[in-house]
Design goal:
Layout: H1 10-18, H2 24-48, H3 50-67, H4 69-88, H5 93-114, H6 126-144
Helix pairs in contact: 1-6, 2-3, 2-4, 2-5, 3-4, 4-6
């Protein structure tokens, strides 16, 4: 396995993720819940320690950079927005825990509606592909208009 290039190209990851996200209701739920979960993880890691957040952020961004430099830039920008929200929004850690749990419940409801199990049950890397799938869809919609 190369340290610099993913074994699967980005489009393969996104296509595989999309197979269990065909239902329009499930897609809308994921469009909302995936970024919220990402934000909550940033908040929880930052609450543990800004250094812990930084170390995990570097690893996550490395994963994205191996797939695509464009995706890396997109996800770095999203991560920076999440960090800014967390840094400047003074809420208790339990707020983030509650939002995290509610968002995951939403995800599982979406998969119940879809009738397909979550992709990450096949491969944990799909936990990082979910945010990329949403970001790429937003980018695609934004650049087509």
């Amino acid at each position: 396995m190369s340290l610099f290039v993913s074994q699967k190209p980005l489009q393969t990851w996104l296509s595989e993720y999309a197979t269990s996200h065909q239902n329009p209701t499930n897609k809308r739920i994921h469009w909302l819940c995936v970024p919220v979960i990402f934000l909550c993880i940033v908040a929880l890691l930052y609450a543990i320690s800004p250094y812990v957040f930084a170390i995990v952020a570097v690893g996550v961004l490395w994963f994205y950079a191996r797939l695509s430099l464009g995706l890396f830039a997109l996800m770095a920008a999203f991560m920076a927005i999440c960090w800014a929200i967390v840094h400047f929004l003074a809420v208790d850690i339990w707020f983030w825990v509650a939002v995290f749990v509610v968002a995951w419940i939403g995800q599982f409801i979406g998969h119940k509606i879809e009738g397909a199990k979550p992709s990450f049950l096949e491969d944990l890397q799909f936990l990082l592909i979910g945010p990329a799938w949403v970001a790429c869809d937003i980018w695609r919609r934004f650049t087509q208009n």
